[in-house]
Amino acid sequence: MATRLKLMKAIRVFEFGGPEVLKLQSDVAVPTPKDHQVLIKVHACGVNPVETYIRSGTYRKKPHLPYTPGSDVAGVIEAVGDNVSFKKGDRVFTTNTISGGYAEYALAADHTVYPLPEKLDFKQGAAIGIPYFTAYRALLHSARVKAGESVLVHGASGGVGLAACQIARAYGLEVLGTAGTEEGQNIVLQNGAHKVFNHRERNYFDKIKKSIGEKGIDVIIEMLANVNLNNDLKLLSQGGRVIVVGSRGPIEISPRDTMTMESSIIGVSLYSSTKGEFRQYAAALQAGMEIGWLKPVIGSQYSLEKVAQAHENIIHSSGATGKMILLLE
Question: Strand pairing partners for 197?
């Protein structure tokens, strides 16, 4: 007798386009884990800006259609393939999935799956993947920060920004952040920043300049390079570096601004990391969870039915505070 195929709800994208191409279907087959794979019952899934670029077809790598978006899931292992150290019932989070995270079940390669400590809930687990691994790569791998240096986190109240503040503070940096709302500014101060500035104020760059004095800032973590890069270059110390985590278009800069300070502009792409680098970042972040400095802040939460609204809001709503997630519980 043939076994009945198990079905689940999942978001499917059949064509690239606006948020309306995200289709909720309830008859998607639950995948089966093979060698070195696990199947996770998804409790929560992070929503990241990159998922909107992939969906619109503007990202450099395009998935084969149809596909299910989402990489950062947290949940419980439902089934395992061969040669896997996880077992059914383990609480886990991921930095990637094979079958997509906007779904009731997600298939993942075992090397992209990590234990989720009891002290963090599933919402927080879904907020670790891209934000914390990106922030860690930006600070430790790309900027090569050293204790005692100063870092400015632009757009510090979002998922990657708060992760960068927490990591930078834990690693002994002087941390400055920017946010666009009073609530956002307070959250930034509560999560590692020594000082915070309102990037909606016209003269906020002058305030930062005044605050840091002649020496300038050693590292700037930049979420919106197409708006800020030109000004960032004028804030840097000798040998300072701007780490570009996000940009939504072109910008005109004066290369001369990099000459006097011998400063650098360095781009970051998390998925350029090797397996070994992912292991290294995971070990550092796991320690952060155990010690207690890694504490994801959860922002707006959406059901699978409201995923189009989530995609709309992550790009267009101003003043994000914390990490946007889809809740499947």
Answer: 178
